[in-house]
Design goal:
The chain is mostly helical and about 290 residues long. About 75% of the residues lie in helices and about 0% in strands. Helix 3 (about 65-75) runs antiparallel to helix 4 and helix 4 (about 80-125) runs antiparallel to helix 10. It starts with a helix and ends in an 11-residue tail after the last helix.
Length: about 290
Amino acid sequence: MNAVEPLHVTALCLAVAALLLAGGDTGPGRARLLLAGAEAVRPTPWRPPRWPAHLARPGREWICLPAGLVLAVAARSPLPLLAGAAAVPLVRRRLRAARRSAERGRRAEAVIALVGAVAAELRAGLQPGQALLAAAATVDALGPGGTTVAAAARFGGNVPEALREAARAPGADGLVGLAACWRVTVDGGAGLAAALDRLEAALRAERDQHEELRAQLAGARSTIGLLALLPAFALAMGWALGAEPLRVLLRTPAGLFCLAVGGALEAAGLWWAARIVRAVPKPPAGAVR
């Protein structure tokens, strides 16, 4: 294999990927062009093809495979491709954790908005059930549990029990406090409004404390990410200087040994740093001050 063939293989892979993403004109589209009159033929803007509904849409974690393929072709070794395939489930788990964290934050914000909206409606003179229904837009943001709460309020069900059930969703712990306030003061709207004001203040304080903690840990996380990327920068610098680091690492016994030891140390360092970050105490969830 000469030196030009890896570039040809890489270009072929990129062309196939672009062709799969772009798609082509369908048979019905060609038929309309052939059967329509000359006046009816108009150029239509190109639109990306829709992903079939019965297939699961591929996530961003699959980028690891073409990246590993390019490195494998450049280094003439199957190890980068195997590493890219092994990285797919790890990256998928990390992306899912990030999505769950974002969903937890949105649900916590929805709980705070719900408490404030119900308190405002109670001060406006509505009964507790009516106030909860008036905040239906906020309740819907809680997901299926919010729908159950709205149904209990509309049809005279057990609202505190529905709130406790909805509080099991990640990020909805504040609904436990709302259920307690509802059960204790449901007979007097004014008392419930005052209790909800205190609950909203407590939830906002808890959220601010959590955001402050995240801001303090942002510097540590950035440092961990930068240190994790230093080996890649070193490899790129060696490649720019003409040292062929990939060939040494992937095609020589000494390079494979150094790659195994370095990869193990890198994984151990990332695990230890993540363990230190997770050990930071979190504020208690749903605490009413």
